Amino acid sequence: MRRTYSYLLLGFGLAAGAMDALAGALPLPEWQHELAVKPQGDAARGGTLYAEHGCAGCHGADGVADNRQWPMLAGQRPLYTYKMLTDYQAGRLAGADAAIMASVVRELSRQDMADLAEWLGALPRPGTATGPEPAILRGDRKRLIPPCSACHGAHGQGWDLQPALQGQNRDYLAKTLQRFRNGERSNDVNAGMSQFAAKLTEEEIRALAEYYGR
Ligand code: HEC
Ligand code: HEC
User: Cα separation of 197 and 214, whole Å?
Assistant: First the structure.
């Protein structure tokens, strides 16, 4: 048992070494570079920037948007928020709503984005996932869809690059899944979200938005 384990580790070590060598030789994917150079965020400065840049006008003073078509930002995972801001700035999201964000973030530095993300992540997030639980929440083996909780956490609380879903504005949640499904949103790393969204039915999307959203 122990021996098998150490062989596994050895195999893993070799693979990791080979990956490093490869990474040195090949240009890193854009997203990997963005995340590797993320500065440490300063929440207090982020609060000031949020006010200065008029984010509250659309996302609410405390990160809770009134407009349910637009995302709630309060309590979102800082790494995810940071990634989204860099994606908007780089033009990696298509559509009219993304164009609004692209113009808002045009002048922001990487440090500004990290600070905003840190501040937003620390704000209280209203709304919890409430029943009824749709069957698709637990995934579907036949269609190779894992449970949402495998990446988004048992309560939709998110983790690092996987955003919190719990308490997200219902309409935004549904709209986002539709856009992943239709290929209108493709900024997810290695198609880590769109490959599953592509297999969801309209009814499932509605039910998921109803379950997680507010
Ligand atoms: C004029 C309205 C408006 C302003 C001002 C605005 N936003 Fe947005 N924001 C939006 C809309 C609309 C979307 C949804 C875009 C889409 O569908 O791709 C969005 C999306 C986002 C997202 C993605 C969230 C997610 O869960 O996918 C983040 C993060 C964000 N905004 C942060 C900010 C910050 C920080 C500021 C201030 C620097 C700001 N926004 C200013 C309208 C606005
Ligand atoms: C294998 C991991 C994985 C699984 C399983 C998964 N997701 Fe995701 N999801 C992600 C990642 C990663 C992102 C962030 C994509 C990006 O960077 O744009 C994401 C993004 C999202 C977003 C966009 C949120 C926002 O604020 O913009 C929604 C909504 C979402 N997922 C819903 C779901 C639902 C519902 C399920 C279950 C049917 C699910 N996801 C299953 C990894 C996953």
Answer: 20
Q: What is the pTM of this model?
A: 0.90
- The whole-angstrom distance between residue 21's C-alpha and the CA centroid of its chain comes to 29
With a Cβ cut-off of 6 Å, ligand 1 is lined by: 53-55, 57-59, 70-71, 73, 81, 84-85, 93, 97-98, 100-101, 104, 116, 163
Peptide bond into 126 cis (omega under 30): no
Residues sharing a CB contact under 8 Å with residue 110, sequence separation 6 or more, in sequence order: 37, 38, 39, 86
Give the DSSP letter string of 28-87. Answer: PPHHHHHHHTPPPP-HHHHHHHHHHTTTHHHH-TTS--SSTTS---TT--HHHHHHHHHH
User: Cα–Cα distance between 112 and 120 in angstroms, integer?
Assistant: 12
The per-residue pLDDT for range 110-143, each reduced to its tens digit, is 999 999 999 999 999 987 767 689 999 999 999 9
